[in-house]
Amino acid sequence: MSGVRGGTDAETAGRMVEETLDRLAASGDRAACEAAEELVRVLMDFYGAGFTRALDLLGRDPDRAAREARDALLGDELVASLLVLHGLHPDDVPTRITRALNAVPHPVESAGFDPATGELRLRLTGSGGCGSTREAVEQVARDVLVCFAPEVTAVVLEADTEREPVLLQIGAGPPAASGTNGRPPAAAAP
User: Fold this and answer.
1) Most exposed among 26, 81, 82, 121, judged by the fewest C-beta atoms under 10 Å?
2) Which stretches does DSSP call E strand in 67-179?
3) Mapping DSSP to helix (H, G, I), strand (E, B) and coil, where does residue 95 land?
4) pLDDT in tens, 97-108
5) Residue 80 CB neighbours (<10 A)
6) The sheet that has 119-124: what strands, in order across it?
7) What's the CA gap between 140 and 134, in Å, rounded?
8) Could you report the per-residue pLDDT of 8-38, keeping only the tens digit for each?
9) Where are the beta strands (DSSP E) in 72-170?
10) Alpha-carbon separation of residue 95 from 46, 89, 100, 142 (angstroms)
11) Count of alpha carbons within 13 Å of 6, Cβ hemisphere only?
12) Pairwise CA distance, residues 103 & 128, whole Å
C-alpha cells in the first residue's frame, strides 16, 4: 500500500522498522540495537512534536482562512524544519531566508546568498541593539536559519559601510572667551 506522494503507509512502515530492529537484535550487537531503538524513539518524538504543533496552530482559530493557517504552519520553526527535511516546503530558498530573517530579533536583511558556498551575507538595517555584538547577531541568524533554510551553511554580517556620526564636545562658549572654570570671564567693574 502506498500513502501520499508515493510514500509508505503506516502499517508497512511499522513493519519495516520492526524487521530492521529484529535484524539488528539478531546480529548480537547489543549496543547497535540499543542505538537504533533510541534513534527510532527520538525520531518519533520529533515527528510527534511537529504534528502536535501543526494541530495546535490549526486549532487556535477554527474560522481562520486557509491562507492564514498555511502561513502559520510555514512560519513555525518546527513544522518548517520537518517540511524542509522532506523536501516538502513549498517556498523557495530566498523566500525561506526572508521568513527566517523576519524572526531574528535584530534589524537585518539579506545582502546576498551564494548557493554554491551556502554563505548568506547580512547587513544591519538599524541599531544592533544594546550589547549586541556582530557575533551575537550572526549566531541568532544561524539558529533561526537552520530550521527554515538549512541550505545556509555560513552567515556573515557585513561591515558597516556608513561611518558613525562624530561625537562633538560642546563647551560653554568659544575657547577664547572661556575662563578657567569654563564660564565667560567676569566683566570688570566701572
Assistant:
1) 26
2) 108-114, 119-124, 154-157
3) helix
4) 999 999 888 889
5) 21
6) 108-114, 119-124, 154-157
7) 10
8) 666 787 788 889 888 988 988 889 889 988 9
9) 108-114, 119-124, 154-157
10) 25, 11, 9, 16
11) 2
12) 15
